């Protein structure tokens, strides 16, 4: 049987799976474009990489009324790279965008999409064929050839190059020698003037392949005649337009006059007349857009139609035709704004000296560098994307350098969003390379957070070592968890992120909070990656301290107490009673809330302080400024500490405040006739006896302030990231060292033991005595669980200043503890490191800079005091010891049984082991792996704090992907892994550097 040519051509579709996607500019928001189609298909191909040819290609046709609302560019780049990696054949995936609107802004967006694809290593893929919609023979119908190009343009190259009648076509097809897996065809309705560029865009010069198409379809405005009804049958599209036309102009019919008209505007309108023969021009664009009041003008006032087309629709007059006054005015303003630098600076370029000045100014301004700096500033400082469009800011830029405006260097919020999405995909490869080249294990921390605009996010950070063994950190992702927060759901998101970076085989240990869901998550993660999850899971020291401090402050059932609080600024009577029952801390909370909620009491407290300062003979006291009470944040223990400290400072003023407030209340509520208090008068809450802070209450508060101060010392010492920085006071060192976790528990348990005895001697301090015991029990509960993982014992034992000696000295009364710790460390050594194959470097690595450390708080002094005295019973190791150690030698036992001069003074075990990588190749690897584990999941908290500053009430429409990518890019930029945030924004010589904030 013989088939016609069209049927044969369409039969080619049988080799593809064709998917039609209808996008109404809302349906593809978020990650649906990636997740619904491409992700599953490319993942399927990747799994069958050895036999890709057996997978049927896919032909995706996207019908849209505008630009897709999510980000096709980064998706295309991402999956194109994946297909290149598995060497998929060309045209494995075809994508076409069929736009059915006249929105010129969307046209510009898709043109920019093509430019950015080229910037990302995807070859330039644009070709343009125009169409003359004003000729009656073609009308506005989509021809058979046009349909053929829509369906097969991304799969058949000869069709992609063919011109068509009907809607204009911008067919994106791959050129050059690099095989490209994606072909995009983009169609949009041509406006009647035949223009395809938005206002302000210059036309693309036609290529040699397009000359025949362009020459045969150029708009001939000179020969335009009054449009008459076509004798051909109306298309459905035209029929709808004409129905709307007659509904808006019920008394009109087509004009009966057929003659040449001199004005070009008739080509953009309908020619109608009323029953009296009065001829009118009706705007065709208004009818097409279904404007409720389409503009029309009488034949004699046709010049007004000229102005309407320009003002209302941005349609300009042809080059040799009459322009409206509005268009002429706009051209003058545009010409004025596009003055040269010589004109702006009033330089006469005919003079050599001033010509040199103009040239130096032009050469001195790098447009791309300016855009890169602006983009980095917005990302790093969490500014709203719209800040770059603020008129005042742009005026500042233009004042500082007029070339910002002359070269059109300002960017828009849409540009920033697009560049953020593409930058993430582009720079991700650099991060993947950095992680794969890292030495040793990569440790992970993750935690959950809910943003102000109700996105449930999980922050994931990793910690690794660079080539000089320096600890480094990076954010890997902030995925949104859209399902219930069960352990297996959390694990699935974490595993997806780890898989995206290809680091599954390098994963080490995790630092997580005590949430029960994390137990199940680690079980699933361990099962997938081949280890026992509970053995690789460390518990966040800060979270443990938080539980102990809450018990210390509020006693039993802290969670139930928190649930009963409404979170409102003002206290109800029921909440007031709940707080009062919590003892001195609760009574102080009530007092502070009542004072802070009353302007009268706030100003009275300031007035009392001011009067007291003014009476002093000391000029330093007279120079003081009054301070307010600090209100706590519900049950955040550090906020309670700060509240207590301020209250102790203001104690004498608080007592005067209560007294004066009571006197004022009595005066206001005393009867002038009898001199007695009115029976209806209600005494203020802060004046009631049961709410008063007694002398013993103040004693308890002072002890709590001191006790919580020890907690503060421990948490601030351990909440860092282990990286070396210059600290306040000029010393160089690190906070957040995992080898200090055991000492942190020992220090606080010892302090609480002392306070148990002290509390028994304080009269009327029942709450305090009970809560000290509860705080000790909570801390001891988690201290006894440290042996669930070898992290803490191994890190402390491999510190050259502590070794086995710490356990033998501090636990001398518990020999079972000592034996258990040594056994766990030896098991890790024997199973994972003793027989590890090592490749020795022929040249020694450069030593890590020494860290000089000082001790400023009692916890750090305790760590110093518990250093064992080395040398007794150990063999002194000479500095000249040969680097060559036999592979059968037990490096762990050899090192533990020997010592060197200066071991007891080592403050930085990381640099110590880096310098001994050749002497102890396997033991140093083990030591560096464990010494770089994080003691707290504080990095996730820092990430969420930054995200919280980004998601303000004025930016509540930010989607989860943008929030996450901005935070990840911010992390990469601050870590120095990337130098710029866009491929078109070239890095400068000094663009790289340490951007980390100074530690506290």
From TrEMBL:
One of its GO terms (cellular component) is nucleus. Keywords: Metal-binding, Nucleus, Zinc, Zinc-finger. Residues 899-973 form the HAT C-terminal dimerisation domain. GO terms for molecular function: protein dimerization activity; zinc ion binding. Its main location: nucleus. It comes from the Eukaryota. It is found in: Nucleus. InterPro entries: HATC_C_dom, RNaseH-like_sf, vWFA_dom_sf, ZnF_BED_domain_contain. This is HAT C-terminal dimerisation domain-containing protein. It comes from Fusarium oxysporum f. sp. conglutinans. The lineage of its organism: Eukaryota, Fungi, Dikarya, Ascomycota, Pezizomycotina.
């Amino acid at each position: 049987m013989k088939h016609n040519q069209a049927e044969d051509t369409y039969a080619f579709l049988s080799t593809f799976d064709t998917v039609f996607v209808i996008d109404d500019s809302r349906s593809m928001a978020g990650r649906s474009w990636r997740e619904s189609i491409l992700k599953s298909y490319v993942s399927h191909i990747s799994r069958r990489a050895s036999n890709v040819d057996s997978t049927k290609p896919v032909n995706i046709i996207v019908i849209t009324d505008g630009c897709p609302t999510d980000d096709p560019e980064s998706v295309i780049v991402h999956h194109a790279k994946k297909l290149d990696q598995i060497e998929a054949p060309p045209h494995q995936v075809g994508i076409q965008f069929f736009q059915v609107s006249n929105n010129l802004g969307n046209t510009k967006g898709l043109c920019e999409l093509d430019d950015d694809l080229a910037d990302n290593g995807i070859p330039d893929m644009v070709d343009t064929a125009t169409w003359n919609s004003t000729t009656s023979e073609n009308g506005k119908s989509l021809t058979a050839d046009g349909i053929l190009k829509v369906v097969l343009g991304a799969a058949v190259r000869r069709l992609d190059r063919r011109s068509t009648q009907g809607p204009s076509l911008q067919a994106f097809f791959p050129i050059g020698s690099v095989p490209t897996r994606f072909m995009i065809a983009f169609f949009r309705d041509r406006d009647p003037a035949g223009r395809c560029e938005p206002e302000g865009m210059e036309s693309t010069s036609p290529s040699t392949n397009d000359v025949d198409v362009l020459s045969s379809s150029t708009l001939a405005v000179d020969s335009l005649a009054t449009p008459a009804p076509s004798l051909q049958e109306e298309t459905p599209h035209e029929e709808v337009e004409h129905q709307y036309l007659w509904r808006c102009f019920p008394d009109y019919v087509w004009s009966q006059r057929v003659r040449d008209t001199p004005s070009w505007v008739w080509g953009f309108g309908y020619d109608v007349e009323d029953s009296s023969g009065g001829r009118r021009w009706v705007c065709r664009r208004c009818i097409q857009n279904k404007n409720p009041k389409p503009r029309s003008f009488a034949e004699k006032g046709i010049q007004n139609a000229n102005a309407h087309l320009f003002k209302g629709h941005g349609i300009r007059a042809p080059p040799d035709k009459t322009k409206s006054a509005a268009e002429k005015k706009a051209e003058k303003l545009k010409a004025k704004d596009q003055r040269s630098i010589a004109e702006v600076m009033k330089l006469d370029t005919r003079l050599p000296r001033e010509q040199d000045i103009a040239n130096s100014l032009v050469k001195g301004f790098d447009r791309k560098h300016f855009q890169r700096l602006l983009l980095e500033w917005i990302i790093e400082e969490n500014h709203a994307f719209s800040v770059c469009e603020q008129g005042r800011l742009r005026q500042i830029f233009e004042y500082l350098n007029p070339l910002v405006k002359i070269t059109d260097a300002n960017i828009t919020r849409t540009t920033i969003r697009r560049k953020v999405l593409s930058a993430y995909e582009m720079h991700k490869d650099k991060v993947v390379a950095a992680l794969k080249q890292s030495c040793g294990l990569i440790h992970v921390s993750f935690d959950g957070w809910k943003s102000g605009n109700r996105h449930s996010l999980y922050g994931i950070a990793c910690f690794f070592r660079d080539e000089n063994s320096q600890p480094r950190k990076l954010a890997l992702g902030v995925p949104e968890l859209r399902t219930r927060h069960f352990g297996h759901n959390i694990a699935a998101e974490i595993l997806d992120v780890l898989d995206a970076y290809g680091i599954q085989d390098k994963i080490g240990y995790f630092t997580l909070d005590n949430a029960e869901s994390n137990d199940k998550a680690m079980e699933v993660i361990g099962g997938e990656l081949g280890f026992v999850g509970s053995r690789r899971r460390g518990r966040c020291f800060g979270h443990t301290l938080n539980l102990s401090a809450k018990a210390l402050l509020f006693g039993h059932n802290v969670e139930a107490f928190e649930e009963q609080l409404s979170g409102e600024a003002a206290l109800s009577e029921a909440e007031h009673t709940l707080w009062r029952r919590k003892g001195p801390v609760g009574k102080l909370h009530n007092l502070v809330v009542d004072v802070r909620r009353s302007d009268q009491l706030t100003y009275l407290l300031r007035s009392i302080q001011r009067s007291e300062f003014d009476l002093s003979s000391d000029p330093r006291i007279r120079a003081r400024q009054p301070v307010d009470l600090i209100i706590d944040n519900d049950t955040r223990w550090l906020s309670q500490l700060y509240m207590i400290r301020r209250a102790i400072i203001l104690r004498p003023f608080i007592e005067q405040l209560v007294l004066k407030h009571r006197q004022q209340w009595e005066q206001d509520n005393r009867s002038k006739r009898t001199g007695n208090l009115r029976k209806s008068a209600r005494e203020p809450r802060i004046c009631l006896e049961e709410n008063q802070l007694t002398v013993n209450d103040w004693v308890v508060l002072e002890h709590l302030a001191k006790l919580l101060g020890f907690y503060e010392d421990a948490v601030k010492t351990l909440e860092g990231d282990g990286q070396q920085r210059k600290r306040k006071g000029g010393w160089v060192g690190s906070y957040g060292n995992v080898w200090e976790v055991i000492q942190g528990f020992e220090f606080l348990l010892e302090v609480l033991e002392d306070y148990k005895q002290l509390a028994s001697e304080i009269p009327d301090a029942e709450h305090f005595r009970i809560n000290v015991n509860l705080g000790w029990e909570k801390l001891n509960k988690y201290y006894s669980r440290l042996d669930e993982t070898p992290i803490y014992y191994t890190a402390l034992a491999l510190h050259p200043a502590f070794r086995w000696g710490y356990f033998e000295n501090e636990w001398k009364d518990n020999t079972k503890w000592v034996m258990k710790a040594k056994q766990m460390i030896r098991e890790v050594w024997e199973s994972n490191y003793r027989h590890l194959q090592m490749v020795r470097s022929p040249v020694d690595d450069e030593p890590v800079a020494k860290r000089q450390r000082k001790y400023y708080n009692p916890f750090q002094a305790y760590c110093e005091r518990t250093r064992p005295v080395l040398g007794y019973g150990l063999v002194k190791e000479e500095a000249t010891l040969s680097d060559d150690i036999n592979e059968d030698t037990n490096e762990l036992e050899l090192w533990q049984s020997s010592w060197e001069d200066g071991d007891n003074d080592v403050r930085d075990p990381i640099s110590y082991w880096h310098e001994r990588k050749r002497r102890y190749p396997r033991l140093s690897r083990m030591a560096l792996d464990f010494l770089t584990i994080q003691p707290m999941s504080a990095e996730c908290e820092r990430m969420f704090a930054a995200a919280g500053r980004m998601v303000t009430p004025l930016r509540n429409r930010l989607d989860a992907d943008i929030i996450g990518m901005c935070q990840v890019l911010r992390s990469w930029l601050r870590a120095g892994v990337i130098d710029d945030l866009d491929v078109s924004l070239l890095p400068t010589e000094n663009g790289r550097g340490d951007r980390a904030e100074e530690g506290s």
